[in-house]
């Protein structure tokens, strides 16, 4: 890809964990406590354990142990994950912390906490609707008409992804260069709705996270379907910014900083979706002969 | 092959993160086991292998991006960074501007 040689660019990004506005509901007392913990936003604290280990419990779930204590979510629930791979990855996030715990580097833990506590009480339906709504403002559907360098870049880099997704899901999406955006047919949204319904709640939580990071449902599906790597998806998401960096120059403390943060979060989200949707069944091939 | 590069990359990241005891960590053993397990396949295009490779690449991305992000954070955006930048500016007789409200979005 011709973009590989281009240097980085700035993307302002805040510490958003739940991107979509919540609906109206009356919070119960426990929700109130949960919200208090989630809104106090402690970013660091001292490390209070030496060893991290995992243990399997009834029901095939895994727990994380910090020394003798079991890890809990901010909402007070016991921290459990559905498979060993995710447990090991989370345990590693805790294991590599030095004297201070930097929670903003523990993306998988954050995602598990969100899935377990569900502090904004989202349902599968809400997540899917929000994702489909995002399609109307999907990054790769919005094309510019000038400068010609950027137009060419968008055509060369985004068109193949658009073709891929239209073919893979047998839908029509299309792109647009006016401010109204693309006119997405209802059938397209229905097809995606059916597809997204096959994901479980944890996977959808991860997918929502990835969509918010990449600002694109199409790129997120490209990543989740393993058509794109994390680096490719991030690059495509930041296409215009990369173009501007090539023109105006790169600022490490802003551009690279934001790019690495975006990449880390996207990678965590993608891993979270894949690990949440895999089964623990072991597939063995019978060697013939 | 791509898989070998990814495997080496992940193990290097683990070593950078954990130090000398990295071979005794859960994740080290798990990663090695996963790479060994997916090596043997009779098919030309084994889907499980492709999936495993993508997962490994994602994990490598996660580890290296987190590390590099943290490095830049400590270098430019932490309280110690402010001291260092102040000193650097002081060397040429400049001072950083005072922001009365502090940097709202940074810790």
UniProtKB/TrEMBL annotation, chain A:
Its main location: mitochondrion. Keywords: Chaperone, Membrane, Mitochondrion, Mitochondrion inner membrane, Transit peptide. Transmembrane segments: none annotated. It is a peripheral membrane protein. Pfam families: ATP12 (PF07542). The keyword DNA-binding does not apply. The keyword Mitochondrion applies. GO terms for biological process: mitochondrial proton-transporting ATP synthase complex assembly. It is found in: Mitochondrion inner membrane. One of its GO terms (cellular component) is mitochondrial inner membrane. Belongs to the ATP12 family. Plays a role in the assembly of the F1 component of the mitochondrial ATP synthase (ATPase). Interacts with ATP5F1B; involved in the assembly of the F1 component of the mitochondrial ATP synthase (ATPase). Interacts with FMC1. This is ATP synthase mitochondrial F1 complex assembly factor 2. It comes from Phoxinus phoxinus.
């Amino acid at each position: 890809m011709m973009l590989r040689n281009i240097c980085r660019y700035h993307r302002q990004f805040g510490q958003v964990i739940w991107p979509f506005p919540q609906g109206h509901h009356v919070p119960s007392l426990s929700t109130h406590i949960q919200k208090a913990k989630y809104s106090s936003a402690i970013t660091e604290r001292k490390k209070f354990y030496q060893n991290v280990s995992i243990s399997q419990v009834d029901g095939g779930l895994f727990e994380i142990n910090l020394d003798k204590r079991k890890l809990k979510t901010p909402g007070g629930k016991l921290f459990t994950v559905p498979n060993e791979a995710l447990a090991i990855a989370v345990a590693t996030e805790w294991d590599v912390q030095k004297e201070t715990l930097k929670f903003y580097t523990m993306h998988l833990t954050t995602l598990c906490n969100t899935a377990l506590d569900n502090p904004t009480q989202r349902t599968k339906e809400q997540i899917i609707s929000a994702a489909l709504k995002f399609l109307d403002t999907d990054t790769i559907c919005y094309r510019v008409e000038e400068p010609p360098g950027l137009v060419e870049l968008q055509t060369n880099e985004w068109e193949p992804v658009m073709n891929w997704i239209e073919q893979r899901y047998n839908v029509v999406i299309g792109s647009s260069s006016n401010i109204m955006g693309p006119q997405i047919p209802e059938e397209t949204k229905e097809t995606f709705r059916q597809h997204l319904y096959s994901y479980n709640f944890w996977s959808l939580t991860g997918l929502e996270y990835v969509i918010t990071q990449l600002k694109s449902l199409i790129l997120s599906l490209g990543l989740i379907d393993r058509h794109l790597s994390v680096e490719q998806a991030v690059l495509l998401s930041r296409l215009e910014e990369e173009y501007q960096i090539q023109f105006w120059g790169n600022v490490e403390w802003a551009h690279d900083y934001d790019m690495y943060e975006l990449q880390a979060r996207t990678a965590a989200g993608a891993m979270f979706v894949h690990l949440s949707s895999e089964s623990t069944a072991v597939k063995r091939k019978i060697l013939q002969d | 092959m791509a898989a070998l590069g990814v495997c080496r990359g992940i193990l290097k990241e683990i070593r950078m993160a954990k130090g000398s005891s990295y071979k005794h960590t859960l994740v080290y053993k798990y990663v090695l086991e996963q790479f060994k397990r997916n090596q043997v396949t009779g098919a030309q295009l084994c889907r499980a292998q492709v999936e495993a490779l993508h997962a490994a690449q994602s994990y490598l991305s996660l580890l290296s991006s987190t590390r590099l992000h943290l490095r830049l954070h400590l270098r430019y955006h932490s309280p110690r960074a402010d001291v260092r930048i102040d000193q650097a500016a002081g060397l040429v007789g400049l001072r950083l501007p005072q922001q009365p409200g502090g940097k709202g979005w940074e810790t």
